[in-house]
């Protein structure tokens, strides 16, 4: 391909002329299924040459629907216009959606059917569709260097999800996933999981760090089989599967499913993993019946809370976890949140909480988030809080000025040599005992940001921000009131 660096721009410009594409999210989804088929076709060539059976490799995709036979333009000619649209809409998609898959189907073959189960072709102009296909077909995934370059370009495509409306929920900035993977320190032989994996950012960051430790072919096999992911929504699932194939994970153990549909009490040691890296969905809620899969005291209506319970039930003894959670989890003192945090601090060692600036996920959301690091080695005795401030020259992060891994450098330096830090009269880094945390009724809104600049937010986010601030204030008032009444010996419940 002549110019990989302009691939995204060229494809975007072509799609803007198609009446069927409405917005960035649909554009990326359209690219996704075509890229998957092209990457998968290249992988099948590779699998065919390494097939260790007396029989030749057999594709699960019928010959007429393999990329090489319908998309590749032989002698510069290929289906186009209405003929191409007719084939894609009435042959390709129906065939791939109904591929024969059962429990015995190898993962590397089953992923084709699950990838296309809910996929869509949005384009209505067959000539423009042919132009997009030609752009993708020009990429030579069988050439190592070009494949590596495109893996970086694919990351650009994923990053654009942050500005694609609600689709941004599927993408965690790579600076954040890379930092978390580095601090968790992957080891050869460990199994890592993300139970709401989105586009696979944590999975790729884990592999990036772990592959630096490979010394033997056994290590390499263990590395490539070290990840486990689950994603509920079709769009990010197809992006994640393609991401794994681009990162040379030939058998991606990533499943199109909803983690919250299984009773947490049914998990056994076989379901547990060594490491969990996650950014659970937050700000939303699941169907009421989902709560039935959790013990009554942990049955929250907030999605992130439910995932925290799943994480606690699925982390092995001596296992490690790093999880992104919104401020609402930290200061929330409703019954379910307190029960979850009580279980977390009494059964796990919550050793570090990194507080991140509010615009890390901008422009998708300005809600402030935090990274909780904990391990399954025993109850918490003390917890360090560290506030990561905006880097010099930044008022906030944005699409053109995103967060970079180097911005975590102060946190990494502090991590290795921990000490309490006061800045402008406010705690930037401080250690609290578990008793101090209990005394606050598990309101762990500590070492926060003292100076907040006024920012104009969309109405929905503004309302949510006010609700979170009110909840935090109410929690503090309730805690102080409880302390006063205890000191005075007053039983408010007994008052008229």
Descriptors for this entry?
496 residues; alpha/beta; Ferritin; Rossmann fold; 2 domains; 10-stranded mixed beta sheet; 10 strands; 12% strand
Task: Reconstruct the topology from this structure.
Blueprint: H1 7-15, H2 24-50, H3 67-70, H4 81-97, H5 107-116, H6 126-137, H7 144-159, H8 174-184, E1 192-194, H9 201-210, H10 217-224, E2 227-231, H11 234-246, E3 254-256, E4 273-278, H12 303-314, E5 315-326, H13 327-331, H14 335-347, E6 349-355, E7 369-375, E8 382-387, H15 409-416, E9 421-423, E10 426-433, H16 434-439, H17 459-488
Parallel strand pairs: 1-2, 1-4, 2-3, 4-5, 6-8
Antiparallel strand pairs: 5-7, 6-7, 8-10, 9-10
Helix pairs in contact: 1-6, 2-6, 2-11, 4-6, 5-11, 8-9, 12-14
Brief digest:
The protein has 496 residues and is an alpha/beta fold.
Can you describe this structure?
The protein contains 17 helices and ten strands. It is α/β, with parallel strands linked by helices and 496 residues long. The chain has helices at 7-15, 24-50, 67-70, 81-97, 107-116, 126-137, 144-159, 174-184, 201-210, 217-224, 234-246, 303-314, 327-331, 335-347, 409-416, 434-439, 459-488; strands at residues 192-194, 227-231, 254-256, 273-278, 315-326, 349-355, 369-375, 382-387, 421-423, 426-433. Helix content is 43%, strand content 12%. It folds into two domains: 4-158, Ferritin (Up-down Bundle); 165-453, Rossmann fold (3-Layer(aba) Sandwich). Strands 3-2-1-4-5-7-6-8-10-9 form a ten-stranded mixed sheet, with helices on both faces. One of its GO terms (biological process) is DNA restriction-modification system. Keywords: Methyltransferase, Restriction system, S-adenosyl-L-methionine, Transferase. It catalyses: a 2'-deoxyadenosine in DNA + S-adenosyl-L-methionine = an N(6)-methyl-2'-deoxyadenosine in DNA + S-adenosyl-L-homocysteine + H(+).
